[in-house]
Amino acid sequence: MQKLIIKGKKKLSGTISISGSKNATLPILAATILAGNVTLTNVPLVKDIFTMLDLLKFIGIKIKINRLRRSIKLTGKKKNINTLAPYKLVKTMRAGVLVLGPLLTKYKKAKVSLPGGCAIGTRPVDLHLFALKKLGAKIKIKDGYIIAEAKEGLKGAKIKFPNISVGATENALLAAYGASGKTILSNCAIEPEILDLVSFMKKLGCKITIKGRRIALVKKKNEREKVNHSIIFDRIEAGTYLVAGALIGKKIIIKDIKPKILKCEVDILKKMGVKINLFKNSISISKSKRLNKINITTKPYPGFPTDLQGQLMVLMTQAKGLSKIKENIFENRFMHVPELKRMGAKIEIKNKIALISGPSKLTGAEVMATDLRASVSLVLAGLIADNRTIINRIYHLDRGYEFLEKKLKNCKAGVKRV
Ligand code: EPZ
Asked: Staple partner for 101: which of 23, 141, 175, 289, CB 3.0–4.6 Å?
């Protein structure tokens, strides 16, 4: 298995171009089931995307990848589609469950493996099924599969989500696309990745309006056959490199982004005393002499994202005083803490709140990645630790970070993959 070896304390300077968003690409790939010919550009060629492409191929979508241009051409089919998403393809990548809505709404049936849990939590899909049932689907769970059907087709409905869920909002939008009449979703997730899915669906011929957490959708008659779409930038990748710059940046420029989408993250970094300047499509950031402690709670967008919690925790280890992080989204998302403590971080967990006292000196160690975002927080810790850090199981990183070591090496980091 591959490892990353990081030689710490090397000041970073240079420019990092941010890739397309994994979490926007996945639902948009699921949406291509609803379309004819789709060309996606600015696609991050990371492991999860290839897993989703394998699933779409299994279903019957024709796929052509242009790695150089980072674009994908997908051609849907009217018939002989396989409306099955097997366990082997969904178990490693939970977002496979997003094919449920489009298959059901277009082919009136779908058999999709329950995604199962992962390191950060049980990851139920009850809210997904709640929405599909409201649209008229008959759903049963058998042998670890969701078996859904809608013989007369789905019907538009008013759906108020009891809790906010990114995936359930996406599945409901995709299912509502083919439903007769109007669908109104309330208490939706409104992450930028969902807004990118909405802009893709509008190109398919959908009338969609968004007001706060309320999304109204009506399918127009004139379905478009040919659709081109460029994926929005990855705000979590951007946030990760902003923290790298705050930790050990002489001066780093993060480009190909929309800074206003990162308002919450930028405000927090400024409050901590980080030197940060915003431009039209980029942000420049440098390490400051002194970092102030801060308390944050992870929330749905536009709040502070759970996907940046582990990364910010590393920065908090260098802030003076006691910082706190309350993880409100997932039940087990502190897997990076034991490994950070082995590197010298002073962190205690008390009822879902991490208490981080700093500044603490980190020392390189051999550590193990457990999930995508926890692994990148270990990379950040390695960048500022004394001597060498060895990170095992970096396949977690490859699921969601495109060219990570290349982007860091271009900024003079001492990172190599062995
Ligand atoms: C998406 O996961 C992202 N994944 C996650 O990013 C991200 O952490 C999460 O949203 C929150 O922002 C993709 O977009 C592919 P949720 P998702 O449904 O949709 C509970 C990464 O690192 N819930 O918003 O699964 C759930 O257990 C990944 O890129 C239910 O109870 O997240 C969680 O506690 C990790 N029932 C909370 O809601 C449901 O039916 C939020 O989950 C669905 C979710």
From this structure: 175
